Protein backbone atom coordinates (compact mmCIF):
# COMPACT_ATOMS: atom_id res chain seq x y z
CA UNK A 1 0.00 0.00 0.00
CA UNK A 2 2.87 2.41 0.71
CA UNK A 3 4.12 1.88 -2.82
CA UNK A 4 0.67 2.61 -4.19
CA UNK A 5 0.37 5.82 -2.19
CA UNK A 6 3.85 6.89 -3.30
CA UNK A 7 2.83 7.13 -6.93
CA UNK A 8 3.81 10.37 -8.60
CA UNK A 9 0.73 12.46 -9.22
CA UNK A 10 -0.19 12.76 -12.89
CA UNK A 11 -1.94 16.08 -12.24
CA UNK A 12 0.15 18.86 -13.72
CA UNK A 13 3.14 16.58 -14.19
CA UNK A 14 2.81 16.19 -17.94
CA UNK A 15 2.46 19.81 -18.94
CA UNK A 16 -0.25 22.39 -18.36
CA UNK A 17 -0.53 23.08 -22.07
CA UNK A 18 -2.37 19.84 -22.86
CA UNK A 19 -5.79 20.29 -24.38
CA UNK A 20 -8.70 19.41 -22.12
CA UNK A 21 -11.83 17.64 -23.33
CA UNK A 22 -14.07 19.59 -20.96
CA UNK A 23 -17.81 19.84 -20.59
CA UNK A 24 -19.41 22.94 -22.10
CA UNK A 25 -21.92 25.04 -20.19
CA UNK A 26 -25.31 24.61 -21.84
CA UNK A 27 -23.96 22.10 -24.34
CA UNK A 28 -26.18 19.30 -25.63
CA UNK A 29 -23.83 17.52 -28.06
CA UNK A 30 -21.48 14.68 -27.21
CA UNK A 31 -17.87 15.40 -26.31
CA UNK A 32 -15.53 15.54 -29.34
CA UNK A 33 -14.47 12.06 -30.45
CA UNK A 34 -10.85 11.07 -29.93
CA UNK A 35 -10.83 7.74 -31.73
CA UNK A 36 -11.99 6.36 -35.05
CA UNK A 37 -14.48 4.14 -33.23
CA UNK A 38 -15.92 7.09 -31.32
CA UNK A 39 -16.38 8.92 -34.63
CA UNK A 40 -18.41 5.95 -35.90
CA UNK A 41 -20.58 6.10 -32.78
CA UNK A 42 -21.14 9.82 -33.29
CA UNK A 43 -22.08 9.27 -36.94
CA UNK A 44 -24.55 6.54 -35.93
CA UNK A 45 -26.15 8.88 -33.37
CA UNK A 46 -26.16 12.07 -35.45
CA UNK A 47 -27.06 10.73 -38.91
CA UNK A 48 -29.07 7.57 -38.23
CA UNK A 49 -30.70 7.71 -34.81
CA UNK A 50 -31.48 11.43 -34.65
CA UNK A 51 -33.14 11.69 -38.11
CA UNK A 52 -35.22 8.59 -37.40
CA UNK A 53 -36.24 9.79 -33.93
CA UNK A 54 -37.01 13.29 -35.23
CA UNK A 55 -39.05 11.92 -38.14
CA UNK A 56 -41.09 9.62 -35.88
CA UNK A 57 -41.72 12.41 -33.40
CA UNK A 58 -42.88 14.85 -36.08
CA UNK A 59 -45.08 12.21 -37.72
CA UNK A 60 -46.77 11.29 -34.43
CA UNK A 61 -47.25 14.98 -33.60
CA UNK A 62 -48.81 15.68 -37.01
CA UNK A 63 -51.06 12.61 -36.70
CA UNK A 64 -52.13 13.64 -33.22
CA UNK A 65 -52.97 17.19 -34.32
CA UNK A 66 -54.86 15.86 -37.35
CA UNK A 67 -56.96 13.56 -35.15
CA UNK A 68 -57.64 16.36 -32.65
CA UNK A 69 -58.87 18.85 -35.24
CA UNK A 70 -60.44 16.48 -37.78
CA UNK A 71 -62.29 14.14 -35.45
CA UNK A 72 -63.36 16.27 -32.49
CA UNK A 73 -67.09 16.28 -31.66
CA UNK A 74 -67.67 19.66 -33.33
CA UNK A 75 -66.01 18.79 -36.66
CA UNK A 76 -67.30 15.21 -36.70
CA UNK A 77 -70.62 15.00 -34.76
CA UNK A 78 -71.54 11.59 -36.21
CA UNK A 79 -68.50 9.32 -35.99
CA UNK A 80 -68.26 6.19 -38.10
CA UNK A 81 -68.36 2.94 -36.15
CA UNK A 82 -65.68 0.40 -37.08
CA UNK A 83 -62.89 -1.31 -35.12
CA UNK A 84 -60.39 -2.65 -37.69
CA UNK A 85 -58.54 -1.62 -40.82
CA UNK A 86 -56.37 -4.38 -42.26
CA UNK A 87 -54.13 -2.12 -44.34
CA UNK A 88 -53.42 0.25 -41.43
CA UNK A 89 -52.61 -2.64 -39.10
CA UNK A 90 -50.19 -4.14 -41.64
CA UNK A 91 -48.49 -0.77 -42.14
CA UNK A 92 -48.08 0.03 -38.44
CA UNK A 93 -46.56 -3.42 -37.90
CA UNK A 94 -44.27 -3.55 -40.94
CA UNK A 95 -42.90 -0.01 -40.84
CA UNK A 96 -41.53 -0.24 -37.25
CA UNK A 97 -39.90 -3.56 -38.15
CA UNK A 98 -38.13 -1.93 -41.11
CA UNK A 99 -37.06 1.00 -38.93
CA UNK A 100 -35.62 -1.38 -36.35
CA UNK A 101 -33.67 -3.20 -39.07
CA UNK A 102 -32.19 0.09 -40.28
CA UNK A 103 -31.09 0.82 -36.71
CA UNK A 104 -29.98 -2.72 -35.88
CA UNK A 105 -27.51 -3.36 -38.71
CA UNK A 106 -25.02 -0.53 -37.94
CA UNK A 107 -25.71 -0.95 -34.23
CA UNK A 108 -24.64 -4.61 -34.23
CA UNK A 109 -21.52 -3.70 -36.20
CA UNK A 110 -20.54 -1.09 -33.60
CA UNK A 111 -21.28 -3.42 -30.70
CA UNK A 112 -19.04 -6.06 -32.26
CA UNK A 113 -16.18 -3.61 -32.81
CA UNK A 114 -16.41 -2.37 -29.23
CA UNK A 115 -16.69 -5.85 -27.72
CA UNK A 116 -13.97 -7.65 -29.70
CA UNK A 117 -10.41 -6.56 -29.00
CA UNK A 118 -8.67 -6.04 -32.39
CA UNK A 119 -5.97 -8.42 -33.55
CA UNK A 120 -4.38 -6.46 -36.40
CA UNK A 121 -0.61 -6.66 -36.76
CA UNK A 122 2.14 -5.16 -38.84
CA UNK A 123 5.56 -6.03 -40.22
CA UNK A 124 8.24 -3.58 -41.28
CA UNK A 125 10.72 -4.75 -43.92
CA UNK A 126 13.67 -2.66 -45.09
CA UNK A 127 14.09 -2.39 -48.83
CA UNK A 128 17.38 -3.16 -50.56
CA UNK A 129 16.64 -1.39 -53.85
CA UNK A 130 16.05 -4.70 -55.66
CA UNK A 131 13.35 -6.67 -53.87
CA UNK A 132 9.82 -6.16 -55.21
CA UNK A 133 7.94 -8.88 -53.26
CA UNK A 134 7.36 -8.52 -49.52
CA UNK A 135 5.71 -11.23 -47.41
CA UNK A 136 3.10 -10.69 -44.70
CA UNK A 137 2.47 -13.76 -42.44
CA UNK A 138 -1.25 -14.49 -42.52
CA UNK A 139 -1.20 -16.56 -39.33
CA UNK A 140 -4.31 -15.23 -37.63
CA UNK A 141 -6.79 -17.41 -35.78
CA UNK A 142 -9.39 -19.33 -37.76
CA UNK A 143 -11.99 -17.00 -39.19
CA UNK A 144 -9.73 -13.95 -38.81
CA UNK A 145 -7.28 -14.47 -41.66
CA UNK A 146 -6.69 -11.83 -44.32
CA UNK A 147 -8.81 -12.70 -47.35
CA UNK A 148 -9.64 -9.37 -49.02
CA UNK A 149 -7.61 -6.37 -50.19
CA UNK A 150 -9.29 -4.16 -47.59
CA UNK A 151 -7.74 -6.37 -44.91
CA UNK A 152 -4.27 -5.14 -45.92
CA UNK A 153 -2.70 -1.67 -45.69
CA UNK A 154 0.73 -0.85 -47.09
CA UNK A 155 2.88 2.15 -46.15
CA UNK A 156 6.27 3.33 -47.33
CA UNK A 157 8.55 4.89 -44.72
CA UNK A 158 11.32 6.93 -46.28
CA UNK A 159 13.38 10.03 -45.61
CA UNK A 160 10.48 12.11 -46.94
CA UNK A 161 8.07 10.68 -44.37
CA UNK A 162 5.37 8.03 -44.00
CA UNK A 163 3.18 7.49 -47.10
CA UNK A 164 0.10 5.33 -47.48
CA UNK A 165 0.12 3.39 -50.75
CA UNK A 166 -2.89 2.53 -52.92
CA UNK A 167 -3.81 -1.01 -53.91
CA UNK A 168 -3.43 -1.70 -57.64
CA UNK A 169 -1.92 1.74 -58.27
CA UNK A 170 1.23 1.20 -56.13
CA UNK A 171 1.20 -2.52 -55.36
CA UNK A 172 -0.72 -5.75 -55.89
CA UNK A 173 -1.61 -8.58 -53.54
CA UNK A 174 -1.14 -12.31 -54.06
CA UNK A 175 -2.04 -15.20 -51.79
CA UNK A 176 -5.00 -13.68 -49.99
CA UNK A 177 -6.36 -16.39 -47.69
CA UNK A 178 -3.06 -18.33 -47.81
CA UNK A 179 -0.58 -18.62 -44.92
CA UNK A 180 1.49 -15.89 -46.57
CA UNK A 181 0.26 -12.80 -48.39
CA UNK A 182 2.69 -11.28 -50.87
CA UNK A 183 2.79 -7.55 -51.55
CA UNK A 184 4.10 -7.08 -55.08
CA UNK A 185 5.68 -3.79 -56.22
CA UNK A 186 6.40 -2.99 -59.86
CA UNK A 187 9.33 -0.81 -58.83
CA UNK A 188 11.48 -1.89 -55.87
CA UNK A 189 11.53 0.50 -52.89
CA UNK A 190 14.81 2.34 -52.51
CA UNK A 191 17.51 0.91 -50.27
CA UNK A 192 16.96 2.07 -46.71
CA UNK A 193 13.23 2.68 -47.18
CA UNK A 194 10.89 0.55 -45.06
CA UNK A 195 7.76 -1.17 -46.31
CA UNK A 196 5.22 -1.37 -43.49
CA UNK A 197 2.45 -3.92 -44.04
CA UNK A 198 -0.55 -4.02 -41.75
CA UNK A 199 -3.17 -6.74 -41.86
CA UNK A 200 -6.29 -7.76 -40.00
CA UNK A 201 -10.06 -7.79 -40.09
CA UNK A 202 -10.57 -5.24 -37.32
CA UNK A 203 -11.61 -2.32 -39.53
CA UNK A 204 -12.64 0.92 -37.84
CA UNK A 205 -13.45 4.41 -39.09
CA UNK A 206 -15.51 5.63 -42.02
CA UNK A 207 -14.72 6.43 -45.62
CA UNK A 208 -11.16 7.61 -46.23
CA UNK A 209 -10.45 7.27 -42.51
CA UNK A 210 -11.15 3.55 -42.44
CA UNK A 211 -8.14 1.73 -41.05
CA UNK A 212 -7.04 -1.57 -39.56
CA UNK A 213 -7.03 -1.50 -35.77
CA UNK A 214 -3.85 -2.94 -34.35
CA UNK A 215 -3.71 -5.53 -31.59
CA UNK A 216 -3.19 -4.01 -28.12
CA UNK A 217 0.28 -2.70 -27.42
CA UNK A 218 -0.23 -2.69 -23.65
CA UNK A 219 -2.78 -3.45 -20.94
CA UNK A 220 -4.20 -1.37 -18.12
CA UNK A 221 -6.13 -3.01 -15.31
CA UNK A 222 -8.80 -0.80 -13.70
CA UNK A 223 -10.25 -1.97 -10.37
CA UNK A 224 -13.29 -0.08 -9.10
CA UNK A 225 -13.82 0.50 -5.40
CA UNK A 226 -16.04 2.72 -3.29
CA UNK A 227 -15.25 5.35 -4.46
CA UNK A 228 -12.23 5.50 -6.70
CA UNK A 229 -10.06 3.41 -8.99
CA UNK A 230 -6.90 1.32 -8.64
CA UNK A 231 -4.80 1.13 -11.82
CA UNK A 232 -2.13 -1.43 -12.70
CA UNK A 233 0.27 -1.50 -15.68
CA UNK A 234 1.22 -5.21 -15.57
CA UNK A 235 3.77 -5.14 -18.44
CA UNK A 236 5.84 -2.57 -16.55
CA UNK A 237 6.20 -4.46 -13.27
CA UNK A 238 3.99 -6.24 -10.77
CA UNK A 239 4.22 -3.29 -8.35
CA UNK A 240 3.33 -0.69 -10.99
CA UNK A 241 0.03 0.21 -9.31
CA UNK A 242 -1.50 3.43 -8.03
CA UNK A 243 -4.74 4.82 -6.64
CA UNK A 244 -6.82 7.43 -8.46
CA UNK A 245 -9.34 9.52 -6.54
CA UNK A 246 -11.28 12.74 -6.99
CA UNK A 247 -9.03 15.79 -6.98
CA UNK A 248 -9.93 18.02 -3.98
CA UNK A 249 -11.96 21.09 -4.90
CA UNK A 250 -9.26 23.49 -3.70
CA UNK A 251 -6.78 21.90 -6.16
CA UNK A 252 -9.13 21.74 -9.16
CA UNK A 253 -10.36 24.50 -11.43
CA UNK A 254 -14.09 25.30 -11.66
CA UNK A 255 -14.14 23.58 -15.05
CA UNK A 256 -12.49 20.36 -13.84
CA UNK A 257 -14.05 20.03 -10.39
CA UNK A 258 -15.74 16.59 -10.13
CA UNK A 259 -13.87 15.52 -13.29
CA UNK A 260 -10.16 15.55 -12.48
CA UNK A 261 -8.26 13.13 -10.27
CA UNK A 262 -5.07 13.16 -8.24
CA UNK A 263 -3.42 10.42 -10.39
CA UNK A 264 -4.40 10.25 -14.02
CA UNK A 265 -4.18 7.24 -16.31
CA UNK A 266 -1.42 8.00 -18.82
CA UNK A 267 -1.34 6.37 -22.26
CA UNK A 268 0.59 6.95 -25.51
CA UNK A 269 -1.19 8.49 -28.47
CA UNK A 270 -2.04 6.23 -31.41
CA UNK A 271 -1.52 2.94 -29.59
CA UNK A 272 -4.22 0.33 -28.98
CA UNK A 273 -4.76 0.03 -25.25
CA UNK A 274 -6.50 -2.98 -23.69
CA UNK A 275 -8.45 -2.13 -20.53
CA UNK A 276 -9.47 -4.92 -18.17
CA UNK A 277 -11.90 -4.14 -15.38
CA UNK A 278 -13.11 -5.67 -12.14
CA UNK A 279 -14.26 -4.38 -8.75
CA UNK A 280 -13.66 -5.05 -5.07
CA UNK A 281 -17.13 -4.36 -3.65
CA UNK A 282 -20.08 -3.43 -5.90
CA UNK A 283 -20.57 -2.99 -9.64
CA UNK A 284 -18.86 0.09 -11.10
CA UNK A 285 -18.50 1.16 -14.74
CA UNK A 286 -15.40 2.55 -16.46
CA UNK A 287 -16.66 5.06 -19.03
CA UNK A 288 -14.76 7.45 -21.31
CA UNK A 289 -17.11 9.22 -23.77
CA UNK A 290 -14.30 10.62 -25.95
CA UNK A 291 -13.16 7.04 -26.72
CA UNK A 292 -16.68 5.52 -26.91
CA UNK A 293 -15.77 3.24 -24.01
CA UNK A 294 -18.13 2.03 -21.31
CA UNK A 295 -17.60 -1.29 -19.57
CA UNK A 296 -18.81 -2.62 -16.24
CA UNK A 297 -16.40 -3.49 -13.44
CA UNK A 298 -18.00 -6.47 -11.70
CA UNK A 299 -16.67 -8.11 -8.51
CA UNK A 300 -15.30 -11.58 -9.23
CA UNK A 301 -15.35 -11.07 -13.00
CA UNK A 302 -12.85 -9.72 -15.55
CA UNK A 303 -14.25 -7.67 -18.45
CA UNK A 304 -12.16 -6.13 -21.17
CA UNK A 305 -12.41 -3.41 -23.79
CA UNK A 306 -10.02 -1.26 -25.80
CA UNK A 307 -9.39 2.17 -27.26
CA UNK A 308 -6.84 3.97 -29.41
CA UNK A 309 -6.60 7.74 -28.85
CA UNK A 310 -5.77 9.82 -31.92
CA UNK A 311 -4.66 13.07 -30.31
CA UNK A 312 -2.97 14.20 -27.13
CA UNK A 313 -4.80 15.86 -24.25
CA UNK A 314 -6.70 15.16 -21.05
CA UNK A 315 -10.03 13.35 -21.36
CA UNK A 316 -12.59 12.82 -18.64
CA UNK A 317 -15.14 10.19 -17.77
CA UNK A 318 -17.00 9.01 -14.69
CA UNK A 319 -18.26 5.82 -13.12
CA UNK A 320 -21.51 5.16 -14.99
CA UNK A 321 -23.04 2.58 -12.66
CA UNK A 322 -24.83 3.80 -9.52
CA UNK A 323 -22.49 2.39 -6.92
CA UNK A 324 -23.36 4.10 -3.64
CA UNK A 325 -23.61 7.39 -1.85
CA UNK A 326 -20.45 8.87 -3.44
CA UNK A 327 -21.12 7.62 -6.95
CA UNK A 328 -20.98 11.20 -8.27
CA UNK A 329 -17.46 11.62 -6.86
CA UNK A 330 -15.76 8.80 -8.76
CA UNK A 331 -14.29 10.41 -11.90
CA UNK A 332 -11.87 9.02 -14.47
CA UNK A 333 -9.14 11.05 -16.16
CA UNK A 334 -6.96 9.78 -19.01
CA UNK A 335 -3.98 11.81 -20.20
CA UNK A 336 -2.85 11.01 -23.73
CA UNK A 337 0.78 11.91 -24.40
CA UNK A 338 3.47 11.24 -26.95
CA UNK A 339 5.23 7.90 -26.92
CA UNK A 340 8.44 9.58 -25.73
CA UNK A 341 6.71 11.36 -22.85
CA UNK A 342 4.90 8.16 -21.91
CA UNK A 343 8.19 6.30 -21.56
CA UNK A 344 9.56 9.14 -19.42
CA UNK A 345 6.48 8.90 -17.20
CA UNK A 346 6.88 5.13 -16.91
CA UNK A 347 10.46 5.58 -15.70
CA UNK A 348 9.39 8.22 -13.18
CA UNK A 349 6.62 5.99 -11.84
CA UNK A 350 8.87 2.94 -11.59
CA UNK A 351 11.38 4.95 -9.57
CA UNK A 352 8.71 6.41 -7.27
CA UNK A 353 7.03 3.04 -6.73
CA UNK A 354 10.28 1.16 -6.23
CA UNK A 355 9.60 -1.16 -9.16
CA UNK A 356 12.64 -3.34 -9.83
CA UNK A 357 13.16 -4.67 -13.36
CA UNK A 358 15.89 -6.88 -14.82
CA UNK A 359 17.62 -5.84 -18.01
CA UNK A 360 15.65 -8.47 -19.94
CA UNK A 361 12.32 -7.31 -18.48
CA UNK A 362 13.17 -3.70 -19.22
CA UNK A 363 14.09 -4.50 -22.82
CA UNK A 364 10.77 -6.33 -23.32
CA UNK A 365 8.58 -3.49 -22.04
CA UNK A 366 5.99 -2.43 -24.64
CA UNK A 367 6.94 0.75 -26.52
CA UNK A 368 9.76 1.68 -24.15
CA UNK A 369 11.97 -1.40 -24.25
CA UNK A 370 15.01 -1.63 -26.50
CA UNK A 371 13.42 -4.55 -28.37
CA UNK A 372 10.38 -2.48 -29.35
CA UNK A 373 9.96 -1.81 -33.09
CA UNK A 374 10.63 1.78 -34.13
CA UNK A 375 7.62 2.16 -36.41
CA UNK A 376 4.76 3.72 -34.49
CA UNK A 377 1.15 2.57 -34.57
CA UNK A 378 0.13 6.23 -34.57
CA UNK A 379 1.55 6.94 -38.02
CA UNK A 380 -1.49 5.65 -39.93
CA UNK A 381 -3.83 7.88 -37.94
CA UNK A 382 -1.52 10.82 -38.56
CA UNK A 383 -1.56 10.20 -42.30
CA UNK A 384 -5.33 9.89 -42.43
CA UNK A 385 -5.73 13.13 -40.49
CA UNK A 386 -3.41 14.93 -42.91
CA UNK A 387 -5.36 13.58 -45.90
CA UNK A 388 -8.61 14.97 -44.46
Q: What characteristics describe this protein?
A:
20 strands; Helix Hairpins; disordered N terminus; 388 residues; 26% helix; five-stranded mixed beta sheet; single chain; Immunoglobulin-like; alpha+beta; six-stranded mixed beta sheet
Q: What would CATH call the class of the largest domain?
A: Mainly Beta
- Number of structural domains: 3
CATH-level-4 superfamily name of the largest domain: Cupredoxins -  blue copper proteins
The CATH topology of the largest domain corresponds to Immunoglobulin-like
Q: How would the global form be characterised?
A: flat
- Work out the helicity level: 25-40%
Q: How many strands appear in the DSSP assignment? A: 20
C-alpha end-to-end distance:
48 Å
Poorly predicted regions are 1-20, 373-388
Q: Secondary-structure element sequence?
A: HEHHEEEEEEEEEEEEEEEEEEEHHH
Number of helices: 6
> Which CATH architecture of the largest domain would you pick?
Sandwich
> Sheet bearing the most strands, described?
6 strands, mixed
Give the averaged pLDDT, no decimals.
87
Give the amount of beta strand, in percent: 25-35%
**Rg from C-alpha positions?**
26 Å
- Please state the structural category: alpha+beta
Amino acid sequence: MKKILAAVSGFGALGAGAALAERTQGGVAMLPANSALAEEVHFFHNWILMPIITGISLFVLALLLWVIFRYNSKANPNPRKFSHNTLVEIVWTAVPILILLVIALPSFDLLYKEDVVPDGKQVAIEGDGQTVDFVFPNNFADGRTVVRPRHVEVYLESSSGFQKLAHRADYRLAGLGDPEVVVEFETPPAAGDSVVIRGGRSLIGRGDRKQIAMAPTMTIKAVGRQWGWNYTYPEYGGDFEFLSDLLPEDQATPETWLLDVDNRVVVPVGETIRVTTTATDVIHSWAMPAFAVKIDAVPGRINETWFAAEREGVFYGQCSEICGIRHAYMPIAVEVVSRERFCEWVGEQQTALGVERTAEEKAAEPLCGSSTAVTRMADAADILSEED
